[in-house]
Amino acid sequence: MGSFQLEDFVAGWIGGAASVIVGHPLDTVKARLQAGQGYGNTLNCILTVYRNESVAGFFKGMSFPLASIAVYSSVTFGVFSNTKRFISQQRYGDSNHAPAFSDLLAASMVAGVVSVGIGSPVDLIKIRLQMQTQTFAKANINLKHRVIGFPAYRGPIHCVSSIRAGAMLLRDVPGYCLYFIPYAFLCEWITPEGAISPTPSSVWMAGGIAGAISWGTATPMDVVKSRLQADGVYLNKYKGVIDCISQSYHSEGLKVFVRGITVNAVRGFPMSAAMFLGYELSRKALRGEQAATNP
């Protein structure tokens, strides 16, 4: 068998879907905190969303990322795993050879670059739908071409047609390096000596810790990304990345760039634990079926 394996893409879809279901409520809280809507702190944001929009408010905008995860997560995990095997094949003559740090770094960077092109539209639409916290009437914004009293976007398709500029996933390349690399080392470290493969508990723990590390360290760029993506729901405030950083700093100080770091890290653990556990278990199951069909 060559180094390319299709089951990595399928397993990535399953793991990604699991992570969206687990993490979307906290993702909604994170997006609203970082966009500067005056919620104050995480607890106040949660209480406000629940009081004004009930439980459904935490799942706003989930249908689109859940549906599109088949493309985003499967491609990201598939590209990472297959790139890692390709590098091992080229360097060591064996696609299953244990990767060195530099191999993991290269594979993570490739996955990050690919994710920018695949994931930016998905993330942008999700953010815009999540930020529909009030009607135009409540926002007191005089937009004559919109219907007063209704949300800006009726759904993902309307959102796509209304957005004129793509969002920037500035965190993704370093973010994936701090995602896959800690996972690989932690999984190897936690796995009992002599085990053929990592146990589910090892995968869950390593994936959760890797997610908390990745999302925590990516928070400053995630704040900028969220503000740029939320910009334009009702009006355009920022001219670009530098202007967003400058305005945010002058109006709220350095603390704005760590806004949501707690919810990011907390959310990152269960999301990534579910992602990696779903991915690893699905991949093992798919390989077992393949082995039974093609001995």
From TrEMBL:
Record keyword Membrane present: yes
Entry-linked Pfam families: Mito_carr (PF00153)
Subcellular location: Mitochondrion inner membrane
Alphabetic keyword roster: Membrane, Mitochondrion, Mitochondrion inner membrane, Repeat, Transmembrane, Transmembrane helix, Transport
A GO cellular component annotation in the UniProt record: mitochondrial inner membrane
InterPro entries, sorted: MCP (IPR002067), MCP_dom_sf (IPR023395), MCP_transmembrane (IPR018108), Mitochondrial_Carrier (IPR050567)
Superkingdom: Eukaryota
Membrane topology note: Multi-pass membrane protein
Gene3D superfamilies assigned: Mitochondrial carrier domain
Solcar repeat spans: 3-86, 198-285
GO molecular function, one term: transmembrane transporter activity
Keyword Oxidoreductase attributed: no
Similarity remark: Belongs to the mitochondrial carrier (TC 2.A.29) family.
Name used for this protein in its record: Solute carrier family 25 member 48
UniProt organism field: Pelodiscus sinensis (Chinese softshell turtle)
